[in-house]
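It would be a great kindness if you could assist me with a short task in structural biology. Thank you for your consideration; the sequence and its tokens are set out here.
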Amino acid sequence: MGDKRLNVLLVEDTASLAALYQAYLQDEPLSLTVVNNGQAAIEHIQQHAPDILLLDLILPDMPGMDILQWLHREKLNITTIVITAHGSVDVAVEAMRLGAHDFINKPIELERLKVTLHNTMKFRQLNQLLDSYRHDIEGEPFQGFIGASLPMQKVYRLIENAAPSSATVFITGESGTGKEVCAEALHERSGRPDGPFIALNCAAIPKDLMESELFGHIKGAFTGALQDRDGAVIRADGGTLFMDEICEMDLELQSKLLRFLQSGQIQPVGSSQQIQVDVRIICATNRDPLVEVEQGRFREDLYYRLHVIPINLPPLRERGADVLSIATALVRQAAREEGKSFVGLSEATKDRLQAYHWPGNVRQLQNVIRNAVVLHQGEWIELDMLPAPLDQPVAHNTAGEWVSQDTLPAPIVPLAVLERKAIERAISHCQGNVSRAAALLEVSPSTIYRKLQGWDNSHA
């Protein structure tokens, strides 16, 4: 990819300047085409879309901003550098909000032109590599999961390695992180995918009915037992039993579960008969199981019997750009189901979703998207369509606690420290994308690059 000559289109109406730029860039690994007005630029882009566009905002036949707006509407994959006169920085920032990668002030310093083009070519090539990588991973969702973040790649590898085994898997993670999706993935990739997958929520069943739900009962075993009934273990014979919220199980029943795990046999309530079953056990909890053991609410011997292969699902706030991948998929799914025309998220909405801490994780994100799709019309989910608490800006305080922007404290710190923290936080928020970070901060990417270089030199 590094040897590929990128096609660059320069829109410059002054012939002498165009000739100067062509001469200065003739030895660069790019193919430069020059047009002298906006209409010619649009026609050239329609016939031979360039990789990079050098766009003057002041053209003889139309404002350069009109071309940028057209590119934005058409969603063309062209990396744009705008050229603007001194004193029009606000216009340049607006251009970057429409998708421009960087801007250069007039009169253009030739060396600055070359450096900017080099940075832009590297940016484009890295983005192409990243897009290819994401396509390979996200081309097909992994067994119901969406996202290619590093924490989730670790989960995928664990699922692939653990699935063929019959060993018990213990899934942990906050509520809404997808523990049942993980269990279903383990079942589908196991050696028994044609067998039944039975899910049992231990927190949703009354204590006095739990044993019957798990092991079944015979007719007359207790008041209301009008006929024999198979429990979840029998129904899962030859397949997988997923026991969600396992830490909610009563201690007395835990001992019976342990006996079943040791022997492979169950005894329905009211029966004297032992029944042999072949079941792969997967359990899950949103609590810390070791804390439950330490506080006497969960049997230690049962914990070690179940905790053979642990899988921890990361919270949504630690999954980076997965938030947007999941949200976009949810928008399209909800739009199909509700008969709406939504296709995605606006840029402002993307920023708000990524800034939020998601205490309810993917389940909360599902509810937010469904609410917006059901109650509104349009093509893009806009910021004002989001329900509470996403309808308000969010931030975190110095203790790392997530709070409303209205209640965020404002400590007095040196300006240089505040500037550096703001830049570093923006880059982190944008997953290392300096151009997008610059747009959010309303500065030029070159400004951020100079700051980063200065900080690096200060440590040299």
Notes: The two ends are 32 Å apart (CA to CA).
